[in-house]
Amino acid sequence: MIVITGVSGALGGAILDGLRAVEGLEVIGASSSGDGTAVRRADFDRPETLEQAFAGADVLVFVSAGYAEDDVVLARHGAVVQAAAGAGVKHVIYTSLAASGERLSIALAHRWTEERLAEAPFDVTMLRNGIYAEVAAGMALAGAVSAAESGVFAAPFGDGRVSVVARDDLAAVAVRVAAEAWSDVAAGVPRRHAGRTYELEGLGAVGGHDLALALTGALGRPVEYRTVPLGEARRLLAGLEAYQAGHTVSMFSNINAGLLEARHSDLPAFLDAPRSVWDLIEAVVKSGLQG
Ligand SMILES: NC(=O)c1ccc[n+]([C@@H]2O[C@H](COP(=O)([O-])OP(=O)(O)OC[C@H]3O[C@@H](n4cnc5c(N)ncnc54)[C@H](OP(=O)(O)O)[C@@H]3O)[C@@H](O)[C@H]2O)c1
């Protein structure tokens, strides 16, 4: 049996749908709320819910738990590792962060979790996910109102770019790896994904000029990119939770420094035809402007 956590989220939900479409698998979704399409409650903030939620799982797809302060995420993820061990799960597949994100502030919790998983008494596969194309589209959308008025998309990227990947492509890789991991466990053969770390970096990189182009298409008026200082961008984030502002500035700094452009990706080993991130960004921006 395969259990997937976080199925009320976009990634976990897509993985659940993908696994349900594979014939011959017993698949159970888990969510912190325990309702909707999920049949089990797995609230990482309530460790007592977890062993029960993972009971009987041969394979656990552990979707990282959202955006929060580091101490909260570490407590959540530590509880998942402990409960998976207690429930006798044989193979855990963790949705981590790609190598290009090593210097992002969110990397701390991901690498800490990878270390805890590596020490645990089950097989592990790290799916080191690249930055979602949907995140880049969100950055374009954040500047859309002002771009519509001024014809300028202002963002603190300098000349930097970020490699991005469609979230549904990451879900498709997770579905394949989980189904194969389960099939190896069931057949009692060596587990091909055990101990493996896959870098699922995007194959296309976008910068300020690319996002201005997407806004040009979506708004039907010329939009040009102009970089702004990080300090100015930080002031505009004042309405966010402190940790969100911190993670966002960290993302901007990394793009600006050119650190988020990937050098290697394992994506082609899993997908014949990754989705076009350009088309996806344009579609998300268009629908965001209509909605
Ligand atoms: N690579 C990237 O660009 C990128 C961007 C954003 C986020 N991420 C990471 O990837 C994960 C999945 O992304 P997404 O797009 O699906 O995010 P999302 O739609 O915002 O969903 C948030 C996720 O966090 C989970 N979560 C929050 N609180 C939880 C709790 N107390 N216990 C268990 N799970 C909890 C949710 O699960 P339930 O509510 O179903 O329990 C859901 O899976 C995120 O949680 C985040 O760690 C990556």
TrEMBL record:
Residues 35-232 form the NmrA-like domain. Keywords: Oxidoreductase. One of its GO terms (molecular function) is NAD(P)H dehydrogenase (quinone) activity. Its EC number is 1.6.5.2. The keyword Flavoprotein does not apply. SUPFAM superfamilies: NAD(P)-binding Rossmann-fold domains. This is NAD(P)H dehydrogenase (Quinone). It comes from Nonomuraea africana. The lineage of its organism: Bacteria, Bacillati, Actinomycetota, Actinomycetes, Streptosporangiales.
